[in-house]
Amino acid sequence: MDIEEQKVQREGYVNAFRSAEIVSSVLAGQLKKIAVTFVECGGAAVQVVPWTLIDGSESAARFAEDLRRQPIRRISFTSISNALAFARELIRTNRFRAS
């Protein structure tokens, strides 16, 4: 993807976490909260935003703002297998307990 495509993609994720639909979906769930992180996978996977508890509009907006402030990285290739291995380790070692 070129830099403009990356900006559009990032903006989409930021806007999603600012949306009432996302917050409503989280609050409609059994636990009324979720833990999320943001990872980019190009070459080496990178955790762009650390694990964050989303339990309402304020925490979702903070997550969106944290993501918006992160620089966009230019990476020449994508490695989905590396991203999956990286994500597996993030899930295994995060501080939240899933049900």
* Number of E-type strands: 2
What is the mean pLDDT? 92
| Main sheet overview | 2 strands, antiparallel
Report the structural category. alpha+beta
Give the domain tally. Answer: 1
Oligomeric state: single chain
Helix content: 40-55%
Unreliable runs? none
By DSSP (H or I, 4+ residues per run), the number of helices equals: 4
Q: What series of H and E elements makes up the topology?
A: HHEEHH
Could you say which overall geometry the principal axes of the C-alpha atoms support? Answer: globular
What distance separates the N and C termini?
Answer: 36 Å
Going across the biggest sheet, name each strand in turn: 1-2
Work out the radius of gyration.
14 Å
**What proportion of the residues form beta strands (DSSP E)?**
15-25%
How would you describe this structure to a colleague?
The chain is an alpha+beta fold and 99 residues long. The protein has one domain. The chain contains four helices and two strands, in the order ααββαα. The chain has a two-stranded antiparallel sheet with strand order 1-2. The radius of gyration is 14 Å and the shape is globular. The termini are far apart.
